[in-house]
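Appendix B, record 7
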Amino acid sequence: MTTATAVAPVAAGTLPRAVLAFEVAFTPSKARVAQMRRITHGHMALWGLPSTLADDVVLTVSELVTNAVQHGRGNVRLWVRCAEELRIEVRDGNPAPAQVRTTTDQDESGRGLLLVAGLARKWGVSQDGRTTWAVFCLPRVGSDGRR
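Structure tokens (predicted):
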């Protein structure tokens, strides 16, 4: 018995963009913030993202993970997905949604979500309040497959 495989031609530019992603679940501790920055930075380099975008993504991960470690409950999950856009999600067990805080010049912290709002195309919190997310636009892929 022989098997035949049919291959249909595909027009250039109609292939879907590769989906790249990683997920890390961890117990909350201050040391995890730096570790998640390093892991994210490594993936951004591996995925070939421009350094300016990678820096913004790493800073956003740092801010969202810091919030989860400081204000969350239970284990934390970081999920980063790069397809048509780059999406970051940080989830913990606290149902109280993250909110931008009003700060004064004397405050030493509390500006993390304000930074995220300035860096990301959009950001928000899931309906159950446990996941804070941010979305970034990706540069177009050239004919050589590079961003």
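Remarks on this record: Confidence is low (pLDDT under 50) at residues 1-15. The radius of gyration is 19 Å.
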